[in-house]
Recover the amino acids of this structure.
């Protein structure tokens, strides 16, 4: 497989806006995150002014179709767009069916759009580990807008809140009522709510969302608006896009945008640190084999022991950081 | 049908026999039908003891039509031998039609190409390589003239196999052509497939419109042709269970899909202010004859009874002529193999026999090369001769419905009927047929059925000779029929010539009118009739649908 | 850490609606632990652009319309023009007469799968032959 790349050659091509090079760099950061620094050292002077929009909602609500329609309008308006669509990796086979592109065929040849489908590869939080890095690459490529579409499984979709400046939660009539939404925590992460497939009777759910928003306190002074769309006819999509720009304006004026950018970096910094620690520990202190050993002795002499074993293992050591 | 005392005697004798059976050998296979109905070792009077001959079975041509829709059935008139046929260009298809006609075919059926199915002109590069490769291209009125040249369309019926998305443009081209030739379209006989499920769950549609609009287009056509009596002898719709059966569903699901769909169309027309009696008599059906011999025969018999009950009880149909279930049958393409293709002749013959024993009105037999390519002339002739062996040599038609009264057939007919009613309920709980589509329900059912069948083939519960038993290499011997490579050029030029000739300003006005009609959701037929008469192409009409109603991608059930 | 997965694009070139074969193979590829990008209906330009942006190792073309030579040739020509042909393996499946296999392979297709093919064979072929 294509594991060996000449990063410098790719960077040169990338700077000439070569989509093949962009695609290959994405492959590298996705497969080999340890090499990300080799890439990003070439991009230290990039501006982080792409506007990042997150799209989330349960499977089947029409996220991809709606993203496609929105992008079409943004492209018509002269924007450049980078899209990242994440689908789940099967925990059993490790494989994934990435089916978002099929809903965006009509924009796929536009010169100002680039789209990449990603599998979550075991990463929790509704996205994949590579999403942040790819968003950086899109920024370096000069995209005006970055759209991140999450896996869409409800409860675990919170990472998008750390990465995107505006989070759009998409709902459809007949899919879970207000209580379901509250359980899913969706009411807390949305900057904007959109009821798609309005032809199936979106009025009821719109009222429910509004009622829930009535009961919520918004410290930022932004009350999420609720739009209704029909992705197939394109009805309502202009309103949705307007809501996004209104939210952008709000967070720019209230200086929330800088905070969100910081949050985005802090999210990645922590992720980098924790994955380094994980690696250090697994390479130097306790590896998969030892874990299996503990599992083997989890119950011994009729006694359940894993808490004690782990406690002892860590109690007896002092970590000391030494540089090589 | 038997007195109690006698039945008791049968019962006790049967118990004795069962002891004998237990002491003998039974092969280690599952004795179930194709749709998983468990089958007993033997059927006896006990299995049909509650049946009443007069009310449940009765006579041919009389309610509940179990034994056939006409009093004399094949003693009066044989079924129509109608081979689904089309390739290359309208001219080449015309030649093939005449060849089959000269060899005894008694009805025509146009297999159209993927562009015609999807309302795409050959000038659209996305589909251009497919011009004529899987059927005949019918993109404008000139194509219809070429297709039917020297064919007596006033005497022989023509089936136009196009679906709701393109039924108005293609059929209006046909009707306009017939008028220009001097025929009275009120006398024209024929069928339009016009089946919403074919181009949604049967095949995946390419840039068609959402299901609610497709359903309306189908009903527009029924309304204009039959209810409004513009072409009162035409069958405006042919609910084509065959096409989704081929996707893996079983006999029970096939009928249930068909009836659930038919109900949604009838409901739509009733909402428009028509009475069922105004149009249901011309609704037609197209079913599969699949691998399970008796189950298929039972399915055909059950279908007639279910339809009768639906019409009588649910729609309160008054005219007895409107209670009969008339259907075309196609032998099962998915049962054919590309390995040892000649075996396909045997498979097709057996399936054709099912259709005849089940009382079909019209029959297509597959050509043995259809797992590999479109039929060659030689293969198509073998397919036609297969029907003629049955009609002219077998003498199976000496009496009507010869299998009636068989303990097994009557029991199985009841069993299939019961299961179909339950499955119709299951679909109708989701809603009308357009909702069953847009919600993804039917896609899920199709997917599950397909994978069940696949598993059966993998674990040997279903046999395909040459594939999973006695496997042989993929055949390289049989000649491959190739469609005309020049078809793209020919069809593009045909349209160019038409465009040079027509009054474009006049057509533009008509197309604007069509936009208006689409926006208001009125019946499109009158305006589409005007448009194709003035030379509108199939793409020009369908692009207006797309412009006004948007395009639709079906839910992806993997 | 290297988390490499084989990536496969499955496309239906043109407008023919026989999707089932392509979907069945797609499932098998996913279940074999690979990442399957489903393209659905795509024209030749869209197939090549998707293959590039998704940086796939394999393109699967599912063709049941009889137009397999035309579409396959167009895809190969465009991959060459874009300079990416060397990194991508092309497989073709569908209703393809056995007589046509040789010509498709001469055009540059790695393998062809006709009716009755086993998905396990396809998966195994990809595993063994993805271009290094």
């Amino acid at each position: 497989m294509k594991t060996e790349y000449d990063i410098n050659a790719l960077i040169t091509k990338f700077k000439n806006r070569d989509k093949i090079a962009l695609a290959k760099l994405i492959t590298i950061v996705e497969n080999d995150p340890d090499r990300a620094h080799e890439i990003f050292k070439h991009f230290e002077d990039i501006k982080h002014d792409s506007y990042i929009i997150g799209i989330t909602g349960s499977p089947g609500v029409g996220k991809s179709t709606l993203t496609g329609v929105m992008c079409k309008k943004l492209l018509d308006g002269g924007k450049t767009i980078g899209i990242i669509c994440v689908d789940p990796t099967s925990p059993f086979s490790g494989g994934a069916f990435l089916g978002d592109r099929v809903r965006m065929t009509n924009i796929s040849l536009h010169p100002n759009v680039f789209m990449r489908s990603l599998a979550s590869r075991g990463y929790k939080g509704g996205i994949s580990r590579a999403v942040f890095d790819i968003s950086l690459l899109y920024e370096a490529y000069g995209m005006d807008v970055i759209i991140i579409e999450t896996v869409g499984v409800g409860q675990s979709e919170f990472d998008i809140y750390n990465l995107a400046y505006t989070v759009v939660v998409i709902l459809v009539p007949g899919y879970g009522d207000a209580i379901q939404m509250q359980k899913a925590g969706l009411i807390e992460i949305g900057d904007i709510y959109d009821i798609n497939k309005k032809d199936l009777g979106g009025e009821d759910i719109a009222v429910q969302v509004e009622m829930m928003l009535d009961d919520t306190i918004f410290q930022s002074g932004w009350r999420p608006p609720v739009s209704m769309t029909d992705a197939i006819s394109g009805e309502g999509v202009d309103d949705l896009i307007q809501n996004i720009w209104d939210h952008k304006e709000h967070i720019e004026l209230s200086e929330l945008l800088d905070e969100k950018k910081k949050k985005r970096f802090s999210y990645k910094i922590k992720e980098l640190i924790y994955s380094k620690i994980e690696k250090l520990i697994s390479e130097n202190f306790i590896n998969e084999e030892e874990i299996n050993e503990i599992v083997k002795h989890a119950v011994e002499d009729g006694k359940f022991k894993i808490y004690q074993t782990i406690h002892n293992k860590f109690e007896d050591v002092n970590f000391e950081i030494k540089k090589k | 049908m038997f007195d109690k005392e006698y039945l008791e005697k049968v019962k006790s004798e049967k118990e004795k026999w069962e002891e004998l059976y237990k002491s003998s050998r039974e092969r280690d296979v599952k004795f179930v039908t194709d749709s998983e109905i468990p089958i007993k070792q033997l059927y006896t009077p006990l299995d049909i003891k509650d049946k009443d001959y007069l009310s449940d079975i009765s006579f041919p041509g009389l309610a509940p039509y179990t034994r056939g829709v006409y009093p004399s059935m094949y003693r009066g008139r044989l079924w129509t031998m109608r081979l689904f046929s089309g390739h290359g260009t309208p001219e080449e298809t015309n030649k093939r039609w005449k060849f089959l006609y000269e060899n005894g075919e008694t009805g025509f059926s146009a297999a159209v190409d993927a562009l015609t199915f999807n309302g795409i002109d050959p000038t659209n590069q996305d589909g251009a390589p497919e011009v004529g490769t899987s059927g005949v291209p019918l993109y404008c009125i000139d194509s219809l003239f070429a297709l039917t040249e020297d064919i007596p369309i006033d005497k022989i019926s023509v089936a136009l196999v196009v679906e709701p998305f393109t039924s108005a443009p293609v059929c209006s081209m046909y009707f306009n052509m017939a008028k220009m030739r001097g025929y009275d379209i009120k006398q024209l006989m024929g069928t339009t497939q016009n089946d919403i499920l074919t181009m949604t769950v049967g095949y995946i549609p390419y840039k068609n419109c959402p299901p609610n609009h497709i359903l309306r287009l189908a009903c527009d056509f029924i309304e204009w042709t039959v209810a409004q009596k513009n072409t009162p002898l035409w069958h405006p719709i042919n609910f084509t269970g065959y096409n989704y059966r081929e996707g893996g569903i079983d006999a029970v699901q096939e009928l249930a899909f068909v009836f659930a769909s038919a109900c949604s169309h009838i409901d739509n027309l009733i909402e428009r202010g028509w009475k069922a009696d105004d149009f249901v008599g011309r609704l037609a059906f197209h079913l599969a004859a699949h691998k399970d011999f008796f189950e298929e025969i039972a399915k055909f018999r059950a279908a007639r009874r279910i339809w009768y009950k639906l019409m009588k009880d649910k729609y309160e149909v008054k005219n007895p002529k409107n209670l009969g279930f008339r259907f075309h049958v196609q032998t099962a393409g998915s049962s054919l193999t590309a390995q040892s293709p000649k075996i396909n002749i045997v498979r097709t013959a057996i399936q054709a026999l099912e259709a005849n024993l089940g009382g079909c009105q019209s029959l297509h037999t597959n050509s043995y090369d259809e797992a590999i390519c479109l039929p060659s002339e030689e293969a198509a002739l073998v397919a036609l001769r297969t029907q003629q062996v049955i009609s002219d040599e077998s003498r199976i038609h000496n009496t009507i419905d010869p299998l009636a009264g068989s303990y097994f057939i009557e029991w199985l007919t009841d069993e299939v009927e019961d299961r179909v009613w339950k499955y119709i309920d299951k679909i109708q709980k989701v809603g009308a047929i357009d909702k069953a589509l847009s919600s993804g329900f039917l896609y899920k059912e199709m997917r599950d059925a397909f994978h069940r069948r696949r598993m059966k083939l993998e674990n040997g519960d279903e046999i395909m000779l040459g594939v999973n038993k006695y496997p042989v290499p993929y055949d390289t011997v049989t000649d491959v029929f190739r469609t005309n490579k020049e078809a793209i050029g020919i069809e593009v030029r045909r349209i160019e010539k038409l465009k040079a000739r027509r009054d474009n300003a006049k057509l533009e006005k008509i197309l604007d009118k069509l936009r208006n009609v689409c926006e208001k959701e009125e019946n499109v037929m009158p305006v589409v009739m005007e448009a194709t008469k003035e030379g509108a192409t199939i793409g020009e009409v369908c692009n207006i649908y797309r412009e006004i109603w948007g395009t639709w991608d079906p839910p992806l059930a993997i | 850490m290297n988390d490499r997965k084989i990536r496969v694009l499955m496309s239906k070139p043109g407008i023919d609606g026989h999707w089932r074969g392509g979907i069945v193979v797609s499932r098998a590829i996913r279940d074999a632990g690979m990442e399957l990008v489903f393209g659905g209906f795509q024209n030749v330009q869209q197939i090549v652009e998707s293959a590039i942006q998704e940086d796939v190792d394999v393109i699967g073309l599912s063709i049941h319309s009889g137009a397999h030579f035309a579409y396959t040739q167009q895809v190969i020509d465009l991959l060459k023009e874009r300079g990416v042909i060397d990194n991508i393996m092309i497989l073709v499946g569908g209703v393809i007469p056995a007589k046509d296999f040789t010509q498709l392979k001469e055009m540059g297709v790695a393998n062809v799968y006709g009716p009755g093919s086993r998905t396990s064979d396809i998966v195994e072929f990809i595993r063994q032959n993805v271009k290094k």
About this structure: The mean pLDDT of chain C is 94. Chain C has one domain: 7-129.
